[in-house]
Fold these 3 entries.
Entry 1:
Amino acid sequence: MLTIKPNDNRLSYEGRIKLSEESAIMYYPGSSVTMRVNAEKIAFTLNERRSWGTLSVGLIVDGEPQKPIRLEKENIGRDTEYSFDLSGGEHTVTVYKVHAGGNHILTFKSFSVDGELLDAPEKPKLKLEVFGDSVCAGEVTMAVDNVGKCDPENHDSIYDNSYYSFVMMTARMLNAQIHNNSQGGIALLDGTGYYNMPETIGLETTFDKECYVKDAGYTDWDFTRYTPDVVIIAIGQNDNHVEGQPDRDINDPTVRTAWKARYKEIVEALHSHYYTAKYVLTTTLLMHDKARDDCIEELKNELRAEGIPTYHNLFTRNGAATPGHPRIPEDEEMARELTGFIRGILQ
């Protein structure tokens, strides 16, 4: 078997990944490594850190998703080799992160093939970046028997798969690269939402991080490594929640003013790095108060007045389709609409 170091330039990565000769560490959902091989067998050595859940690594061969590779709990924290067989000949293989970093961090130590590693495939020119919550991360998307219903009880992450989230589908429909910087339960502001309970962390802390998982040690992201053409911000679903306190009402003028001000600061900070990007603000089909979307419309208008090219996407069934996470058919519905919306603003 030919052993390949993580920083080999014939490997093609996507996502905010901490890369060195010794390892490739993936935090965000949908982060991936792609390789072209002439081989019958591929293996990779992995060390994982998990907080909860029944977890897997995703696999795509020649553009077709395969059954994810289940990661056994007894291997947590130790280097473990996983392998899979190919039919022989040339193939393009992608290994991707199924879950968000809040419950799972993957460290790839090496890759190996029983044949040749070929030059990396050419990346698409269009680049997307996403800042979102569990819907963007693909949580519970595979529970297709629960379309339009609440989530199955005690599902333990078995229905999660970032590949089928609407933003990852949108990237494939547009033939675009994507950095999907999403985390289940996250809200805009620290102290709100559900991520990292009971001391919740918001997008205001995570948006500029490479590692955004607090107890793994924050590291800053180098914005020069990736410059998107379109930035999608899908935040607002979890923002009413404050643990141990009454919900925050977006119709309260004090709450609304503070939320909008911080949201604008984040967009302005991103724009200081991505001065040619367009910004799409949105929520999803998951049921929520329309007042949040009205607030986002105000934000869009105020940012446009500052000269930042900002757009507000509203899905046909925005905030009204399902009390549970969108499933694959609903994610595809959103992806088709968002793809059309982005094509329109890029013309």
Note: The chain has two domains: 2-118, 127-346.
Entry 2:
Amino acid sequence: MERAVAARARTAAVQELARLVRRAGSVVALTGAGISVPSGIPDFRTPGTGLWENVDPMEVAHIDAWRADPERFWTFYGDRFQTLGDKRPNGAHRALAELERGGHLDAVVTQNIDMLHRKAGTRELVEVHGSIAACVCLSCGARPELAVVIERLGESTVPLCHCGRPLKPDVVLFGEFLSAAALGRATALAEGADLLLCIGSSLEVHPVAQLPAVTLSRGGAIAIVTQGPTPYDARAAVRLTGDVEAELAALVAAL
């Protein structure tokens, strides 16, 4: 009986979400680490599996750590770079790309650096924390692509620029500011959204966590599709807590 009631409630929530999408003039998706978990990429804080479970991010993923000890930094980050480069989009990434192709989604704003939205075919994409697609040399400004960096990692513990200086992943490390252009674009999209679809994010990492409040302040609605609690649950027009692939597949089918 309880399962049947839960199933009916979920179906009703998906139908309501589809109704909101159809009525909205602008729909924007905001995605976090949870959308990539089905692709085999751990999130950050889940007990037992989170990326930071046994590692202090301030020691290995801070800009000061990169500056002070690039070898230690890359000992941690090098494995992550190579692992992420092999990952493939899952059904949730593909569902968002399909929604965009169908004219139901204007853009995806993502906190993820894993390139999976790109690989799935999303065209209008704002990667607010950067991407592993390239590295950058803070000395000469060179930006070698991922394949080149992986090749150099095979030759040395620390990938070096052609100028001889250590490369830094073109991602926002702890202690760095987000790109003003990326954050400005994300904020503009949130301001113009009639519906902000928040997927796989705890909505606790600022400044991106302020985007739902931006949409709400402009009279838009938010919908949340993630398994853990968020600070915005009580203000969400729709709240889905199931598997992100299943929930987004159901949304696509309902449209």
Note: The chain has two domains: 11-41+89-129+178-255, 48-86+131-171.
Entry 3:
Amino acid sequence: MIARAGIDTLKELIRFFPAVALVGARQTGKTTLVQAIFPDYSYVSLDVPSEAALAEHDPDAFFALHPAPVIIDEVQYAPGLFRHLKVQIDASRHEMGRFILTGSQKFGLMKSLSDSLAGRVGILSLEGLSFAELQAAHLGGVRSWLHRGGFPELWRLPEFPARQFYASYLATYLERDVRQLLNVGDLRDFERFIRVLAQRHGQQLDYSAIANGIGVGARTVKAWISVLEASNQIFLLEPWHGNVGKRILKKPKVYFADSGLVCWLLGIEAESLDHSPFVGPIWEGAVYAELRRQAGAHGLNRSFYYYRDNEGTEVDFLVLGGGARFVEAKWTQYPTTSDTRNLKRLAELAHGGSSPELRDPTLWILCRTEQTYPVQSGALVSAAGLSSIREILT
């Protein structure tokens, strides 16, 4: 098994909470991780309809059959179980780590956890393999990680054709998650929507433009976006909403969670990645994923935004918490001084603006370089590779 960066955080949560929930998209390795770390726990999957029905309608019999300590996989399929979990926990309130829950549908699961298990459950997100995790396992380089993506099964079986994995993944996702989360009349329309959205990976979210592209209403697109968010397939990056003295554009940007899925949806082959018009947004999305994954894995409380105003200043990522960092993602090995213009401009605006949390930022270009170095002599902007992300975050 490839070592996951969140193992220490998961073990720490088990020490201090009666229940721990591990959330993330399908096939990101949640079940493999918890079974490997806690081999003495019993295991039950609510992906099995009979087990889900028992948990939902006869929880006493369910807990008699699966006593703690227990791993309950895909727990969102029995929403009625959560209030009974609370009873089980409160019967031995100070006995920690008795229940490990996993789930792949974020919004419904998080609501159930907050409504029934507030203060009783520690929560950890698990995405696909980060570049740092692949590096530690001596698997793949930047290009192969970008094109193949971060699903562990693709790295456990290097001979597994990525196109076959993603075709199966999308079909399974449509049938299991989309049908449950939303009453979609025609799954072919939803699949077309996903492919159109992939073309807008890394762009501001325009519901009307997407709706026009597939022949549905903007309200339908909003509902479908919510489904992709709920199942951890996409992330929306909000614009910075503070005041730096300029009119700021307010639409979120949309990113697919996994770069390999985007490459497959766009029909990009490994050998043509460098020359694809989408390589810049795909790299930008991968940088955002790495920032999120490493912040979460190391327990760092960081907030992420982007900046764009009506005068043309745009910065890919503002990372706040423990100081400010402005980050540009560039698919190049050797950034030039022209790549620093927006970073420096935003730093100037922040210095004179009324948002103290943005002042005195460090300025970064995340690119394909192997070593961190100043872009020019005396410059405030440093070029860095993915291996430097933890240093940047801390």
Note: The chain has three domains: 7-125, 131-238+250-274, 287-393.
